[in-house]
Design goal:
heterotrimer, A mainly alpha, B alpha+beta, C alpha/beta, A: two-stranded antiparallel sheet, 28 helices, B: alpha+beta, Beta Polymerase, domain 2, Cytochrome-c3 Hydrogenase, chain B, three-stranded antiparallel beta sheet, about 40% helix, globular
Chain lengths: ~700, ~525, ~240
């Protein structure tokens, strides 16, 4: 089995690092790690093609069932994870070379343990296995974040992650245990089978606990404040892994547990949808006010996880209301967005890491002008930004467009509260898209264009190949996932079928090319002049257009990124030819018009802060910055003006802050009980026993 | 008059101060550098005196030593005060600008142009002579400096850094100018901003520095008259009137009664046109094109009226020491009277339309507010001061010419915002129209000019120009050539305070606030 | 509530015909050369040497006239003419724009030390009575869009570089128009350490508009001359 080979290679790699000889062993270790990731990716592809397949069946004492099984959904997540790792590992190996030998091995081991823990988690099929792998993944992620422990900040961030992760785990575990207790079983199969028989309140409690508990790992509100802290302080080479891969853990976990519940309980789906939409908006708002590239990207991960969550929630709701095709389309959109996020976020984080490696800073306000100094990295970075800003022909456009279109189909559900929830969520997501566009104009604009705003940016070194080569591959992937929508959707459709029980492929990518397709011939002929039948004889696809069909109207919505791209390219080509052919004079290059100043200085040009200022002003009542302003005077002269605005995350402000102060207050209260008098302690014990007895009597009656 | 005698008694009893009175209008005091800050602070804070201007003169007999005169006026006592200090070579003067902030730019100017250093001033340098272009140690107003040619030497060039007061993460210094907008006067405005909000503004002027005070030196009275008239064309008559007054005061002559009345008429005509031009700019800055067109029509009507009654649209070439160069004929007078009625009607209509346009008022109300405190600290003058609740007007407080007979009404507003300034512009234009109508029917007959002999001597003269108090100081040599011409302009005073009205404003309001201030760069730069 | 469109329409068309004679007060006018017996002595009256005695005539050099009016005040004045067509080419090499610029021209105005009167007149070229836009002429704020650089003022030392940079930033074909006596020779400010004494030697100039200040009509006439309306094809009414 490929799993075994991959696991063996993965365990081998850290040992290889310890062999004598520096360059050769490093290369060997990297090859071994890379091979492990590639093997896992292959296995993922295989798993997506097969049905459910049991792998390990153990019945352990005390712990109970410890089983693993392979499903297409697990295969998809393993594939995504392995690809992200494969793309990030060159940079990990590159940066690990800077550590001493022992730490280098440890670093590789920790990174690989994350991969293995995640793979195991995706395959887990019983409560104990699920939690075991979850903890392995959580602990190794914590180890990654705190790996550079010389500064104190990473430790704090790591502890915060760990603490929140444990709170989340506990909540998720509680939900899972509720279900297991209700079903009297600890294997997933029987638990899911028993769900229709359980009481609605138990299901709701379990579903909410699992969603918010495991969702925490994906940055779902309210407990997402750890995410930017952790990703902002993790070693730069691991950020692509943390954002691109590990966030999917949370999505997968709550999808696994909540999907079967939500199919019987539409409200849960609505909660997931609206929470996702709100998460997306909050994520992008905080991304826009960040000046640190890594933290900005981490906040944007919150946004993208929110979008994927919303897709999942909408899919579950539609299906629960008896619209499996619409539900399938939404779920496909959510899963598609998860894939897309992993691709472009890995690309962007690699770019940010590369910029950090080239300049020594990831502060946007200190960058600028890198397009001229790092042209390859910058161009690839721009591709990532276009993709994440959901601009065609890249992949972000496909999933966000599909999601918004699916949400609009709520018109087919008659219940007004559902319609309102969908409409509001759709509005939040639309606002999010607009803000995301602003954000990802700002990111490449402020980092790459304009004048360099610091010596570091002026003297940037070339970025390592370990960054630019994977970035190029990922950029290609972003394009392929964008133009190849009609090839990707059927694959996701089959996975959605495993979750919802029906496959939406036929209603999203109808078999346009085949003569026996469900599309009326008249429609096909009408669309043919638009190029919809290009490649019908030789393309191994169902068609080139994503189009939703239903019974009343033949085509509800339709889109083809490939054809759009072809039209765009040919237009650009025509313009280029016209310019080449018709230009009469030579091009004159003049210097920048600076209104007649001696020279435009870098401190006179826009920074990320100034660019995002309108957002800060418009959303001021939401962001609620704490403002500090002081000035120095000499008589009537103003000598100096200091101003600072610190924006605290809303979950920090509304949830964690109060909890922290409550905890401190309780601790202070408890401390007063410890005054060392033995008879008081005896009184406490007596009171506790009385309370316990009263509780037992009440429970029995 | 008890307040006036009180001030005089206080000055007389001030230790070690010699007091003399000249011409009945000016109390002259000779003081020492040590006495200066305390005396200046006391005058402004206790006696409510206003700082008028600062004059530096190179002492003729000893190289590199200066006579410095600080002029104040006490509006309530109708008195002008001169503090004279002799500066020994190699010594400095204590800065008074942290207490009398209106003197801030005057001190910076004296340092740049004379090399006279003021102890305790935090921002000397890079003012009139920009650091990026001029080397250190060039003092153009010294006699040994030749005005003919620019001396060799470079400034800091590309090493020049914009001034920054603000410490805030990600904040930038956003430059506006020197060439900006469709048709604006040149200058550089550096907006310190984190985006959207302007936290602080550095007004960097003197891009139009033509060294008028320097090139006037050595010119004949008649020649220098052209400079005084044309360094700020939008208020040519006011500035040339002050110049003529100075020459007349040195000569000891007064213009005939008819000439004094005509001077007031033309000065009010200029004021009305100046204010209407400001109104047009305010309307234009808020993109209210019809209102702008209506205001432009008013401006053009005033200009055509000026050309018809005085021969020149900007009233150039009208005055001369001793009176006027040309008379006003009866048909011109009738034309003028007829035009005034029409202009008043149009002005009132425009005002009514504007005052009922809420979208327009939203953009100027509470915009660019200069509080009464700042107005006093910075010693702003003219309509800007009156819009911030300071009823200051030299026509009332130090009456000149025939204004003691024809006292104009002084409108004030309390808010100090853009709308208050707009209301002041309208109110003063209407008052000027009223004054012109009244005078045009009562002009005395008689000559328009007396012979004004050219004598050696010096004098201060003042005028309430359209944009505020103007103090020109002139010293003539025996041969009638100018030894020193000091142009103390209202623009120089008001630009200084502009930065305080911008603080906290949004980016896009900058041009609107600028328009409501209606300041002339040429008048500042000289 | 103000209804601005109605106020605008109510005023009717206020733009004055380009063909009509110069309205009263629209121009300060200028002295006209005349034969006089006292030419030598009379020409001394001019403080800017705009009057020159030549063979019993007083010749007028418009490039130096600042409208001080001294030659028309007094008992025996020089005749003055109230016109506004004052612009003239700098030299014989100067050319109007190619024909395709006849109906559209963009102008960048640069104040290089002007006293404020020139600025005020420039601000009036789009006033209803003059309506510069009817000729397709527009004021722009950036040299990148500009065909014409319109400069006023004696070119102060601090603005020298800005003027040169603005000229360099303009695309070809471009023309430079020096506006006002100051831009021609420094006017009353002349040449000094702080002023360059006009555009000559700073950037290549095509057309001068004398006057102190040139009124809006003179500015528009100069721009139309650059467009080729006045020197070349017959004058046509453009409304």
């Amino acid at each position: 089995m490929l799993y075994v080979a991959a696991y063996l290679l993965a365990f081998l790699a850290p040992l290889l690092v310890l062999l004598p000889g520096r360059r050769a062993t490093a290369l060997l270790a990297w090859l071994s790690m890379e091979a492990a990731a590639v093997l896992l990716a292959l296995q993922g592809v295989l798993a997506m093609g097969n049905g459910k397949l049991p792998l390990i069946q153990l019945q352990l004492p005390v712990i109970g069932a410890f089983t693993f099984a392979q499903t297409p959904l697990a295969g998809l997540l393993i594939l995504i994870t392995a690809v992200v790792f494969a793309m990030a590992l060159p940079f990990v190996a590159h940066d690990a070379n800077a550590y001493p030998r022992g730490r280098q091995a440890l670093f590789c081991a920790v990174v690989l343990l994350t991969l293995l823990g995640m793979t195991g988690f995706f395959l887990a099929n019983s409560v104990a296995a699920f939690l075991f792998c979850w903890e392995i993944a959580a602990l190794s992620i914590w180890a990654i974040i705190t790996f550079e422990t010389r500064q104190s900040k990473p430790v704090a961030a790591g502890l915060l992650t760990l603490a929140l992760s444990e709170i989340g785990s506990l909540a998720g575990l509680a939900g899972l245990l509720l279900l297991a207790a209700g079903a009297h079983n600890d294997r997933f199969g029987p638990i899911i089978a028993a769900i229709p028989t359980l009481s609605p309140s138990l299901l709701l409690a379990a579903g909410l606990l699992a969603f918010f508990g495991f969702g925490m790992k994906a940055g779902v509100i309210p407990l997402n404040v750890w995410l930017p802290e952790a990703h902002g302080t993790a070693p730069r080479s691991t950020s692509p892994i943390l954002s691109g891969a590990t966030l999917n853990l949370g999505l997968y976990a709550f999808l696994r547990i909540d999907a079967p519940i939500a199919l019987h309980m539409p409200h849960l789906g609505l909660i997931i949808l609206s929470t996702g939409a709100l998460t997306a908006l909050i994520g992008i708002l905080y991304a826009l006010v960040e000046r640190d590239m890594k933290r900005l990207l981490a906040q944007s991960s919150v946004e993208n996880m929110g979008i994927a969550t919303a897709g999942i929630g909408a899919g579950l709701t539609f299906t629960a209301y008896g619209y499996p095709l619409l539900g399938g389309a939404s779920l496909v959109a959510g899963l598609y967005h998860m894939i897309n996020h992993s691709s472009f976020k890995t690309l962007l984080f690699l770019g940010a890491g590369g910029i950090d490696a080239a300049t020594g800073t990831h502060n946007l306000d200190a960058l600028g002008g890198l397009m001229k100094r790092l042209p390859v990295l910058s161009s690839l970075f721009v591709v990532g930004a276009l993709a994440i800003a959901a601009l065609p022909p890249f992949n972000g456009f496909v999933s966000e467009w599909l999601l918004l279109e699916s949400l609009l189909r709520v018109v087919e559900i008659p219940e007004v509260p559902v319609r309102i929830t969908f409409a509001l969520s759709g509005a939040l997501l639309a606002l999010t898209s607009g803000l995301a566009l602003t954000c990802f104009i700002m990111l490449p604009g402020m980092a790459l264009l304009g004048l360099p705003r610091s010596a570091a940016a002026r003297t940037a070194r070339p970025a390592p190949l370990a960054v630019t080569l994977p970035m190029a591959l990922l950029a290609l992937l972003c394009l392929l996932l964008g133009v190849g929508a009609t090839a990707v959707i059927p694959v996701l459709g089959r996975i959605a079928e495993g979750i919802l029980g029906s496959n939406p492929t036929a209603s999203l990518v109808p078999d346009f090319f085949s003569t026996s397709s469900s599309i009326p011939t008249a429609v096909r002929h009408a669309l043919a002049p638009l190029g919809t039948e290009i490649g019908a004889s030789w393309l191994p696809l169902r068609g080139l257009a994503v189009m939703h069909l239903n019974s009343s109207a033949p085509v509800v919505y339709a889109m083809s990124t490939l054809l759009t791209m072809l039209v765009l390219l040919s237009l650009l080509g025509i313009v280029w030819l016209l310019v080449r052919g018709l230009r009469q004079r030579r091009v004159t290059r003049a210097t920048l018009w600076d209104a007649g100043l001696l020279r435009l200085r870098p401190e006179m040009t826009y920074t990320a802060s100034t660019f995002a200022a309108p957002v800060r002003v418009v959303f001021r009542s939401f962001l609620r910055p704490s403002v500090q302003s002081t000035e120095d005077r000499q008589g009537a002269f103003l000598l100096n003006l200091r101003h600072s605005e610190v924006i605290n995350n809303i979950s920090e402000r509304l949830i964690i802050g109060p909890i922290r102060s409550a905890a401190t207050a309780i601790a202070a209260l408890l401390a007063r009980m410890h005054h060392g008098k033995i008879n008081t302690y005896a009184a406490y014990i007596l009171a506790a026993m009385v309370l316990a007895l009263l509780f037992l009597i009440a429970a029995n009656s | 008059m008890s307040e006036a005698t009180g001030l005089r008694h206080w000055l007389q009893s001030y230790p070690a101060l010699s007091l003399s009175e000249v011409d009945g209008y000016c109390l002259r005091l000779v003081c020492t550098p040590e006495q200066l800050p305390g005396l200046a602070r006391e005058l402004v804070e206790h006696w409510q005196a206003e700082f008028a201007t600062l004059l530096v003169e190179e002492h003729p007999d000893r190289a590199l030593s200066f006579t410095v005169r600080y002029y104040f006026y006490a509006p309530r006592q109708h008195h002008l005060l001169e503090l004279r200090i002799a500066v020994a070579p190699g010594t400095e003067l204590p800065a008074i600008s942290d207490a009398v902030h209106a003197a801030d730019w005057h001190e910076r100017e004296a340092w740049d142009l004379y090399g006279l250093r003021f102890t305790g001033h935090p921002f000397l340098g890079d003012f009139v002579l920009h650091d990026e272009d001029w080397p250190e140690g060039v003092d153009p107003m010294l006699h040994r400096f030749s005005a003919r040619q620019r001396p060799a030497g470079e400034g800091s060039g590309e090493h020049w850094q914009p001034p920054q007061l603000l410490e805030e993460e990600g904040a930038i210094v956003f430059p506006v100018g020197p060439i900006w907008g469709d048709y604006n006067e040149s200058g550089l405005w550096l907006l310190e901003t984190p985006g959207e909000q302007i936290r602080y503004l550095h007004t960097r002027l003197f891009y139009k520095y033509r060294a008028v005070e320097k090139i006037a030196e050595g010119q004949a009275v008649d020649q220098a008259f052209l400079l005084s008239e044309r360094f700020a064309g939008a208020a040519a008559l006011a500035h040339s009137w002050a110049y003529c007054q100075a020459v007349e005061r040195i000569a000891g002559c007064t213009a005939p009664r008819r000439a004094e009345q005509l001077r007031i008429l033309f000065a009010e005509l200029e004021r009305a046109r100046h204010h209407c031009a400001n109104i047009a700019e305010i309307c234009g800055s808020t993109a209210l094109s019809v209102a702008k067109a209506m205001a432009q029509n008013l401006v053009e009507d005033w200009l055509r009226l000026s050309a018809q009654v005085a021969g020149h649209r900007y009233l150039f070439g009208l005055l001369c020491p001793g009176g006027l160069r040309q008379d006003l004929h009866a048909e011109q007078r009738n034309l003028w009277i007829a035009a005034l009625a029409r202009l008043r009607r149009d002005l009132l209509a425009l005002r009514e339309h504007l005052e009922t346009s809420s979208s327009f008022l939203d953009r100027i109300e509470e915009m660019g507010t200069l509080t009464a405190d700042f107005a006093k600290t910075f010693g702003v003058v003219g309509p800007i001061a009156r819009a911030s609740g300071r009823a200051l007007d030299l026509r009332r407080h130090l009456p000149y010419g025939a204004y003691s007979e024809w006292e104009p009404e002084i409108p004030t507003e309390e808010q100090g915002d853009g709308y208050a300034r707009l209301r002041i512009f309208f109110a003063e234009t209407l008052i000027s129209i009223g004054l012109m109508e009244e005078m045009l029917t009562q002009i005395a007959d008689g000559p328009i000019r007396t012979e004004c002999p050219i004598r050696a001597g010096h004098a201060l003269a003042w005028v309430e120009a359209p944009s505020g108090a103007t103090f020109h100081w002139l010293r003539l040599a025996e041969d009638g050539s100018v030894l020193r011409l000091r142009l103390g302009t209202p623009g120089f005073r008001n630009w200084h305070a502009f930065e305080r009205a911008i603080q906290g404003a949004a980016f896009q309001d900058f041009p609107i606030i600028l328009a409501t201030w209606g300041l002339s760069v040429a008048e500042n730069d000289r | 509530m103000s209804f601005w469109p109605w106020y605008g329409l109510r005023g009717g068309q206020q733009t004055e015909s380009w063909e009509a004679s110069v309205p009263a007060g629209a121009s300060p006018g200028r002295p006209v050369a005349a034969a006089r017996q006292d030419a030598d002595q009379f020409s001394m009256i001019c403080p800017t040497q705009a009057l020159r005695a030549q063979a019993g005539r007083v010749e007028v050099e418009m490039d130096h006239c600042v409208h001080c009016q001294r030659c028309r005040q007094g008992a025996d004045p020089l005749p003055w003419q109230e016109d506004a067509a004052w612009s003239h080419w700098r030299d014989t090499h100067a050319q109007p724009f190619p024909a395709r610029f006849r109906r559209s021209l963009h102008v960048l105005y640069v104040d290089a030390g002007a006293c404020g009167a020139c600025v005020n007149e420039i601000r009036l070229v789009d006033a209803p009575v003059y309506n510069l836009h009817r000729f397709g002429i527009f004021i722009t704020a950036t040299p990148r869009d500009a065909d014409v650089l319109l400069v006023s003022g004696p070119i102060t030392d601090a603005m020298h570089r800005a003027v040169v940079k603005a000229y360099a930033a303009m695309p070809e074909p471009k023309r430079v128009l020096g506006m006002g006596v100051c831009a021609i020779n420094g006017g009353v400010f002349g040449k000094s350490f702080a002023s360059h004494g006009g555009l000559e030697g700073v950037i290549p100039v095509d057309l001068w508009i004398p006057g102190c200040p040139p009124p809006p009509l003179a500015i528009i006439e100069g721009l139309r001359r650059l467009m080729g309306w006045t020197n070349g094809p017959a004058e046509r009414e453009v409304r």
